[in-house]
Amino acid sequence: MHTYDPALTDLVVASLRDRLRNRPTLNHPGDGDKLDSVLAGLIGPEGNDPAEVLRLWTEHVAPTVIGVDSPRFLSFVPAAPTQAAVLFDTLVSCSSIQGVSWLLASGPIAAENHVLRLLADLAGMPAEAGGCFVSGGSAGNLSALVTARDTARRHRGLGPYDRVRFAVSDQAHSSIGNALRIIGVEPFTVPTVDHRLTGPALRVALLADDDPSDVIGVAATAGTTNAGIIDDLTGIASVARDFGLWFHVDGAYGGAGLLAPSVRDRYRGIEHADSLVIDPHKWLFAPFDCAALLYRDPRPARATHAQDASYLEALRAGDDTRVNPSDYAHHLSRRARGLPLWFSLAVHGTRAYSEAVERALGLARDTAALIRNTPHLELIREPELSAVVFRRIGWTAGDYEEWSARLLAGQTAFVAPTGWEGETVARFAFLHPETTLDMVGEIIGTMT
Fold first, then answer.
1. Secondary element (H or E) of residue 423
2. Within a 10 A sphere around the Cβ of 69, how many other Cβ atoms?
């Protein structure tokens, strides 16, 4: 089972080469009963011919995967990993890297730390900033908010059952609310102004509360998922300083905009963040799953997350624990998921990344202009980043759902409807450098 099998290797490499060579397709959702029938009996006491298993994958399983890396996938937040990143991800998997500590993976962790340093510099964070890579924005937000909670408890002399709250907006990503629920922290919801959390609104809410002393932090967003709106980071940072709050910024989707000169000024204030999350598997063209978690000062994170056990002592003996990624998030075992991004950045350079991000921003602006000039369509708001929200005048929720299904059935695009102020509307999320305005025009043409 563990011996090298050249025939098996050739089979899988050929499949990998075919996937890399051909443009990803959108595909169709699978039928559960049919899939169960195909997969039935494959896993049992005896093995199977690898060629037959791979055939089943290629003919029956793979076609049910909606191609989020297709240039025609314009829903949620797409993915568009570079070939360099995908290939190196394969090498990382082959290498069985245990990225938990410097002792076990010093070289890979050093490479990951160089990428983290790049992201910290883009955000304007201090030289001592650091962190680790986790599986996604949900894991990053959870780990950062646990650090914020425990740091506040230590500094304020609070017990584990004392009430604490965290300021959030009604536009915060769902993972923020979920993380607060998991860690037993109540949300202190601040109303937004035009879907944007501002410093003045936060200040007013705190001053109006009967006892704001139990509010320990605030979570801002650098690019909301639905509309790409960047909160008033400078104003929020100022209020956080005045009230002694931990300042967390969720830039899972929008953080990549730090590479784009055309929108960099919109992120002013992000340099004051105590913690920051950016997902490279979104707009930094890394494969799933990869999120960067950064701390302004990593020491509180280590005080919160470092795990102690007799079998872990060897990881710290004579070692600088600053570079043990397991100390900065809720994980212990981890793959070195930052390496594909490191390799791709080293191969292509940051200028290529900046140009790719700018391309999506430009497409969003061009699409907004196209919508404004198309009868029966209405732009809901000017795009700040690469998400465009608009409506087809006169359509109901059912119309949008039928339109979305028709687009996918014809493999024209995957465009899922979204909600906006209680109304079902349409939304494009641009990210893939090969998505063109002609493609967008083709999709919009189906609405008129």
1. strand 423-429
2. 18
Phi-psi bin for 417: left (phi > 0), alpha (psi -120 to 50), beta?
beta
Q: Which of 360, 442, 446 is nearest to 404 (CA)?
A: 446
Mean pLDDT of 30-44: 96
Tell me, rounded to whole angstroms, the distance of Cα 281 from its chain centroid.
6
Beta bridge partners of 169: 190
The Cβ of residue 170 has, within 10 Å, a number of other Cβ atoms equal to 11
Spatial neighbors of 101 by CB under 8 A, at least 6 apart, are 109, 315, 319, 324, 325, 326
Distances (CA, A) of 238 to 209, 230, 245, 265: 19, 16, 10, 17
Distance of CA 172 to the CA centre of its chain: 14
Secondary structure in 3-state letters for 262-285: CCHHHHCCHHHCCEEEECHHHHCC
Q: What is the dihedral of CA 28, 29, 33, 38, to 10 degrees?
A: 60
Residues in CB range of 370: below 8 A, 6 or more apart = 437, 440, 441, 444
The token duo for 301 is: 């994170």
Tell which residue, 300, 302, 272, has the closest CA to residue 125: 272
Predicted confidence band of residue 206 (pLDDT cuts 50, 70, 90): very high
Element (H, E) at 109: helix 102-123
pLDDT at 319 > cutoff 60: no
Closest among 439, 440, 341, 429 to 68, alpha carbons compared: 429
In tens, the pLDDT along 329-379 reads 999 999 999 999 999 999 999 999 999 999 999 999 999 999 999 999 999
Beta bridge partners of 190: 169
Closest CA to 185 of 145, 138, 140, 156: 145
Handedness of CA 331, 334, 337, 343 (dihedral sign): positive
The tokens of 315 are what? 């990881």
User: Does residue 320 carry a pLDDT above 80?
Assistant: no
CA angle 192, 231, 424 (to 5 degrees): 60
Nearest 5°: the CA angle 297, 99, 341 is 80
- In tens, the pLDDT along 115-144 reads 999 999 999 999 999 999 999 999 999 999
pLDDT in tens, 165-191: 999 999 999 999 999 999 999 999 999
Instruction: Give the whole-angstrom CA distance, residue 427 versus residue 438.
Output: 17
